[in-house]
Amino acid sequence: MDRKAELYNNPGARFVGTGKLLEVLAQYDRLSADEKPRHFIKCDGKSYSGTEIETLKSR
């Protein structure tokens, strides 16, 4: 089953995009190193940021 995920930008949790988890992870990976700390991913009702996003990649 394809899991849905959403990408957000801080501050203010501004919505960036939504899609299948792998698509959102690919979008996150395209961010620059300076941009990544200002973004987080919501999946399965939880928020993931920084090194936590690596746990999403391993699922």
Task: Provide structural commentary.
With 59 residues, the chain is of the alpha+beta class. Helices cover 25% and strands 36% of the residues. It has 2 helices and 4 strands, in the order E-E-H-E-E-H. It has helices at 21-29, 52-57, and strands at residues 4-9, 14-20, 39-43, 46-48. Strands 2-1-3-4 form a 4-stranded antiparallel beta sheet. The longest helix has 9 residues, at 21-29. The mean pLDDT is 91.
Notable characteristics:
59 residues; four-stranded antiparallel β-sheet; globular; 25% helix
The coarse overall form would be: globular
Q: How much strand?
A: 35-45%
What percent of residues adopt helix (DSSP H or I)? 25-40%
Please state the CA-atom Rg, rounded to the nearest Å.
10 Å
Task: Give the integer mean of the pLDDT values.
Answer: 91
Number of helices: 2
Low-confidence stretches: none
Overall structural class, as computed from helix and strand content, comes to alpha+beta
The N- and C-terminal alpha carbons lie at a distance of 12 Å
Record field, number of beta strands = 4
What order do the helices and strands follow? Answer: EEHEEH
Largest sheet data: 4 strands, antiparallel
Spatial ordering of strands, largest sheet: 2-1-3-4
Blueprint of the fold:
Elements: E1 4-9, E2 14-20, H1 21-29, E3 39-43, E4 46-48, H2 52-57
Antiparallel strand pairs: 1-2, 1-3, 3-4
